[in-house]
């Protein structure tokens, strides 16, 4: 069953703490993404990964870093979290080609609150 | 600058009614346009994709149109059900592969009441 799994689903952290968001997929998709979704805004791309150790900044990478050591797994790290990083974070995956016929698959999101 | 604008921002309809959601964009190039459904607290699920210069698709009670000359798309939902309550997101891709970028609208929140 094709699925993108995000852990944890909910997280509360204090300002200055480190945060690790995990994402896994079982389709062997080359490409994986991290987005954040804020009220009234479209999803914003934080990082994109084209394969293991092949990561590129998205539109809002500041304050975030990523790690992809296995094709199936993509992590988002917040070093010293800030209150303005409170958001819902979505991971997605897709095959590199045939984008028109294969939609990106999204996880159910991680709701992060930084107090 | 927002490149994908959706209207209305929110919409309330009675079960059984039809509704139309609009998407205007300025993304160039505009390789394809996809509509997603996002249930509250869930991820995005693809409803349909439009690719051609003037395209139409149909998926059950959902149908969509795209006019690339006008950079405009519509999503029609026929005979709405309570389960149609969700946010509908328009996404424009500037390439036919994951090497391109996806440009997301902020969504239309649809509420279907009994």
Defining traits:
heterodimer, A: 115 residues, mainly beta, four-stranded antiparallel β-sheet, 11 strands, 0% helix, 53% strand, globular, B: 114 residues, six-stranded mixed β-sheet, five-stranded antiparallel β-sheet
Compile the SSE list and pairings.
The complex is a heterodimer of chains A (115) and B (114).
Chain A: E1 4-7, E2 10-13, E3 19-25, E4 31-37, E5 44-51, E6 54-57, E7 65-70, E8 73-78, E9 87-94, E10 105-106, E11 110-114
Parallel strand pairs in A: 2-11
Antiparallel strand pairs in A: 1-3, 3-8, 4-5, 4-9, 5-6, 7-8, 9-10, 9-11
Chain B: E1 4-7, E2 10-14, E3 19-25, E4 32-38, E5 44-50, E6 54-59, E7 62-67, E8 72-77, E9 86-93, E10 102-104, E11 108-113
Parallel strand pairs in B: 2-11
Antiparallel strand pairs in B: 1-3, 3-8, 4-5, 4-9, 6-7, 7-8, 9-10, 9-11
Overall pLDDT score of chain B: 96
Strand runs of chain A, count: 11
Unreliable parts of chain A: none
- What is the rounded distance between the termini of chain A? 37 Å
User: How many H/I helical runs of chain B?
Assistant: 0
Low-confidence stretches of chain B: none
Count, helices of chain A: 0
- Percentage of residues in strands of chain B: over 45%
- Structural class determined from secondary elements of chain A: mainly beta
Please give the number of β-strands of chain B: 11
Q: How does the major sheet of chain A shape up?
A: 7 strands, mixed
Specify the helix fraction band of chain A.
Answer: under 10%
Strand content of chain A: over 45%
Rg of chain B: 14 Å
Structural class of chain B: mainly beta
Largest interface: pair, residues per side = A-B, 27 and 29 residues
């Amino acid at each position: 069953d094709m699925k993108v799994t995000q852990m944890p689903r909910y997280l509360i952290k204090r300002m200055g703490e480190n945060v690790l968001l995990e994402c896994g997929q079982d389709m062997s998709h080359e490409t994986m993404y991290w987005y954040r979704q804020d009220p009234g805004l479209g999803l914003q791309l934080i990082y994109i990964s084209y394969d293991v150790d092949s990561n590129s900044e998205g539109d809002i990478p500041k304050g975030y870093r990523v790690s992809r050591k296995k094709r199936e797994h993509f992590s988002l790290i917040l070093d010293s979290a800030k209150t303005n990083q409170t958001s819902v974070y979505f991971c997605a995956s897709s095959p590199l080609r045939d984008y028109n016929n294969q939609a990106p698959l999204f996880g159910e999101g991680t709701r992060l609150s930084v107090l | 600058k927002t490149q994908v604008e959706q209207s209305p921002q929110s919409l309330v309809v009675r079960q059984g009614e039809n509704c139309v959601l609009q998407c205007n964009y300025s993304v160039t190039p505009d390789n394809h346009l996809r509509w997603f459904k996002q249930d509250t607290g869930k991820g995005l699920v693809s409803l349909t994709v439009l690719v051609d210069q003037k395209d139409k698709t149909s998926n059950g009670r959902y149908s969509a149109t795209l006019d690339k000359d006008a950079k405009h798309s519509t999503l029609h939902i026929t005979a709405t059900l309570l389960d149609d309550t969700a946010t509908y997101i328009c996404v424009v891709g500037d390439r036919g592969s994951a090497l391109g970028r996806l440009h997301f609208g902020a969504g239309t929140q649809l509420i279907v009441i009994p």
